[in-house]
Amino acid sequence: MESIQFVPGTGAESAGSVPGMASEGLHEPAELLDQATVDHHRAVTSLIEELEAVDWYDQRVKATGDQSLADILAHNRDEEKEHASMTLEWLRRRDPMLDRHLRTYLFTSLPVTEVEAEAEAGGGQPPAAGDGSLGIGSLKGME
Amino acid sequence: MNHLHRELAPVNEAAWDQIESEAKRRLTTHLAARKLIDFSGPHGWSHSATNVGRTGSVSGPAEGVSALQRRVLPLVELRAGFSVSRVEIDDADRGANDIDLEELDEAVRQIALGENVTVFHGYQAVGMQGITECTSHPPVTVKPDMDQYPNVVAQATDVLRRSGIDGPYGLAIGPEIYTGIVETAEHGGYLLFDHLRQILGGPLVWAPGVQGGIVLSLRGGDHVLECGQDLSIGYQDHDADVVRLYLEESFSFRVLEPDAAVALRLKG
Question: What ipTM does this complex have?
Fold first, then answer.
């Protein structure tokens, strides 16, 4: 298994050094975490990196005066969007609650702040409508 | 809506949460095979077969035309039903967080047993061979005497190592022997469980459905459970008293490297 560096300290301390979520390590001792949790951390970290890359490429596209370079950077930026989508789908398949929220909010046309109320009023997917998966997946390494 | 028809079930959100949470907790305990082998997927309910990359010859459809037919391993669908009292479901909405899910617990035990047995010993009716059926090594015989286990497990890991199969290794062991191992302290008070873990370099897994034991490599790429739909809860039907639900999954299992496991066979 790939080794993951444990960064001592509280989540708040780590979050102070990297906005949003520390991506360089785990917030809890590795020996207290099962493999599924570590893999989940890997996926979340990867998703953050992909979206961050989209942002960086986007700024460079807007900043450069060379159209041929802007075209390449825009192509690369859009590749990162594909990577982010794939990782998000991996997470959704393993997280029933994330699945439920994504099914509520994604691909809707109402103002986003009105989607939840609409769903609760019966206009959207019922609460238990998810794909029904318990999201167990691999348990390799667990005892 | 998908084929699980959960939207049709008269089950409130609080009860769904308890049912799913209970199922997941118990399945994680019982699904022994997944703790030791590779898991691929989930590839979705519409995923019907595993590509094995092989062909079989068939006669050509016309003069001068030869033909090969692709071979696949079809996935099997496993399902275990259970009922939940509608009174209990209504109570969950009132805040009861201890609703009676006894039948769910039994369904969890049954479907996990089905998955474990298929992986470890095979499921002939659907053409899936288990690890003990495929292994290229003769079984290592073990007597019920717990003191023998360190030698037996070391012998099994030695067989794997000599075959060029790297560790770490894991041990799947039936519940009765597992309890015996956990309860046993060797000379000097060293726990047998810890000693075996040290020899294996990997986990010792409580494995309902395993006959005897199996030592196998955890290096990856040797044993693959390919999942179509991962374990899910669906709705069957209901009456005035109960709602009938079920646990369901679809998967195939293949041994890619027959050298990567050794069976421990109980003697006497």
Answer: 0.90
